[in-house]
Amino acid sequence: MITTVAVAVYRPVVLPVRRLARAAQRMSGGDLSARVQLQGRDELAQLVTTFNEMASALENKVSELEQMEARARKFADDVSHELRTPLTAMTAVAGILHEHPGLTGDAATAGRLVQQEVEHLNRLVEDLIEISRFDAGTAQLVTDETGIASAVSQCLRARGWSDVRTDVPAGVTARLDRRRFDVILANLVGNALRHGGPPVTVTARIQADGRGAGQLALEVRDHGNGLPLTAIPHLFERFYKADTARTRSEGSGLGLAIARENARLHGGDIHAGNHPDGGAVFTVNLPLNA
Ligand SMILES: Nc1ncnc2c1ncn2[C@@H]1O[C@H](COP(=O)(O)OP(=O)(O)O)[C@@H](O)[C@H]1O
Ligand SMILES: [Mg+2]
């Protein structure tokens, strides 16, 4: 008797509720195609219908958003590539123009300005192309066993940053993409020099990653005013600049976004904070075997 009653209640109520729960779980796990089969005409069936309608609406909306995003990304990529060719020509002309002996006074100043702005545009376009490679999922790692001390000193030497202090033990090595490592470090040191203040130090060591393996911990520290606390959560967003008073042409605002994408491509990350004694500290963690 008890079993009969139990079965009688179980079937029409518990089963559909379970199915609903499972479908909801699948949806929250990212499978938006989850639907529940409709049975009967009671309130539960009504609930199932509403659930299915909601699921369809959500699936359509997400797919619409994905298509819009893909179009926006393709647009940014196309525009950047289209700009490259005329910019190359403009760079050449602006380079000759600003050194032209016939240009004096205001005209010379204008020539220099044009050259600076073209350079700025060039950097912006190169950064945009770099970012769109990450968005398109075409960014690839080319890894090599790398001595960190020499990678750091090469990065600094190539940019004439002779007054940056380094503290990297000779034996520290990691398997990583050298070009991308250089991009990360150059962005962070460039920021420390431009937005922070001297002295700027780069340190690297191997440390435990908390999961039983080792990781590379690279730190770039400066002695400037540090990062405004309200800015820290946004620093890695595209086009974000904490200091709005800075002149427009100084940076693209994409540097930290690109640096983080590069670190994440390695399976690592970058964190920003302030040192208790003042100045900003950016820490890059990279697995030893990317
Ligand atoms: N070392 C630093 N000290 C103070 N502010 C910094 C530092 N590094 C980055 N920032 C802030 O973070 C912003 C974003 O940096 P980034 O993405 O490299 O863009 P950009 O350098 O082109 O402005 C900078 O505009 C600056 O306001
Ligand atoms: Mg920068």
UniProtKB/TrEMBL annotation:
SUPFAM superfamilies: ATPase domain of HSP90 chaperone/DNA topoisomerase II/histidine kinase (SSF55874), HAMP domain-like (SSF158472), Homodimeric domain of signal transducing histidine kinase (SSF47384). InterPro entries: HAMP_dom, HATPase_C_sf, HATPase_dom, His_kinase_dom, HisK_dim/P_dom, HisK_dim/P_sf, Sig_transdc_His_kin-like_C. Pfam families: HAMP, HATPase_c, HisKA. GO terms for cellular component: plasma membrane. It catalyses: ATP + protein L-histidine = ADP + protein N-phospho-L-histidine. It is found in: Cell membrane. One of its GO terms (molecular function) is phosphorelay sensor kinase activity. The keyword Coiled coil applies. The keyword Phosphoprotein applies. SMART domains: HAMP, HATPase_c, HisKA. Its EC number is 2.7.13.3. Residues 48-78 form a coiled coil. This is histidine kinase. It comes from Trebonia kvetii. The lineage of its organism: Bacteria, Bacillati, Actinomycetota, Actinomycetes, Streptosporangiales.
